[in-house]
């Protein structure tokens, strides 16, 4: 929720309008004289990353005002095959989840735009300019392209890979590593008993990764200036690694091990001032309550598998790129 303001491009004098500041919606002033909005921005493959929801606002404005949207597609940096997680429930839609998609959606921004446009009835004039040479099995490192930070706390591909899980720590008092040089890869808190937490995790949650015990001191954000005991996540097998499962299990284990110290974040969160932030991130109050009650992650996964399978079927007609 660190906003940016409007301005002028210093070279051309063209006005620059922020859609993450005083408004999230494009206004008539911004759209005056526009016949095409070109969308050229790197997504990270996770439901709560807000670029895709700003895109839906632009598409809705395009349907209303009659201008064209052209998307210059870019890779999903964490691959286009694997999907993971529950779908957002209607009562918990927000700027971090406007439509019912899973936490890890396995689609490019162009594919998502096609999906949103038809499945949710936006109906704008839309063109997707596809990439050449990208296949669904490719992660960002496979492209040979340089990583350019899409946002300040997404400094590398490794952060993007763990983000679909570690972002949920924004909804509690565990540090997700903001204020360090490895955000989302690092997590912890001053109160955390690392040995106890590791022993409490389900072995299956650690598939494809290693948790290395470490300490860190955030320079901003949660626990600023305090020594946090925790871990760095090292992904050893991208195909077996399930970030959402791991992080849900981390939260469950932290509640079990530290019931008096663990707490949920209070509102506001991403322009919502009443709902519990964790409910918005998870897209479900029920899922948060299950974590509070120590429900095993295996059971949580079984509970959302049918709807995830349904999403996989629904997205199929909108997939542009092949699976090798």
TrEMBL record:
Residues 4-155 form the Peptidoglycan beta-N-acetylmuramidase NamZ N-terminal domain. Coiled coil: none annotated. It holds the Pfam family NamZ_C. One of its GO terms (molecular function) is peptidoglycan beta-N-acetylmuramidase activity. Residues 161-321 form the Peptidoglycan beta-N-acetylmuramidase NamZ C-terminal domain. InterPro entries: NamZ (IPR008302), NamZ_C (IPR048503), NamZ_N (IPR048502). Gene3D superfamilies: 3.90.1150.140, Uncharacterised protein PF07075, DUF1343. Signal peptide: none annotated. This is Uncharacterized conserved protein YbbC, DUF1343 family. It comes from Desulfoluna spongiiphila.
């Amino acid at each position: 929720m660190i906003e940016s303001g409007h301005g002028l491009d210093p070279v051309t004098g063209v006005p620059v309008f922020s859609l993450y500041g005083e408004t999230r919606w494009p206004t008539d002033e911004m759209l005056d004289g526009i016949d095409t909005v070109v969308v050229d921005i790197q997504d990270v493959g996770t439901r709560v990353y807000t670029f895709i929801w700003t895109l839906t606002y632009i598409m809705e404005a395009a349907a209303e005002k009659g201008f064209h949207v052209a998307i210059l597609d870019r890779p999903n940096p964490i691959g286009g095959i694997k999907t993971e997680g529950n779908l957002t429930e209607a009562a918990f839609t927000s700027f971090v989840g406007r439509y019912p998609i899973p936490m890890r959606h396995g689609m490019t921004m162009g594919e998502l735009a096609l999906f949103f446009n038809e499945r949710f009835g936006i109906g704008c004039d839309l063109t997707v300019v596809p990439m050449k040479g990208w296949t669904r099995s490719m992660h960002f490192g496979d492209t040979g392209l340089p990583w350019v930070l899409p946002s300040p706390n997404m400094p590398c591909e490794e952060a993007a890979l763990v983000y679909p899980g570690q972002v949920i720590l924004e909804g509690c008092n565990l540090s997700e590593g903001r204020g360090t040089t490895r955000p989302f890869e690092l997590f912890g808190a001053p109160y955390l008993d690392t040995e106890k937490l590791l022993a409490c995790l389900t072995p299956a949650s650690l598939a494809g990764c290693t948790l290395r015990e470490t300490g860190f001191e955030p320079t901003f954000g949660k626990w600023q200036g305090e020594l946090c005991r925790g871990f760095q996540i090292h992904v050893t097998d991208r195909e077996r690694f399930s970030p959402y499962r791991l992080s849900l299990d981390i939260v469950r284990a932290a509640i079990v091990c530290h019931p008096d110290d663990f707490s949920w974040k209070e509102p506001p969160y991403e322009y919502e001032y009443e709902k519990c932030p964790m409910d918005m991130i998870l897209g479900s109050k029920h899922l948060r309550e299950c974590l509070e009650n120590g429900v095993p992650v295996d059971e949580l996964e079984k509970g959302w598998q049918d709807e995830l399978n349904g999403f996989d079927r629904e997205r199929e007609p909108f997939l542009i790129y092949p699976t090798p």
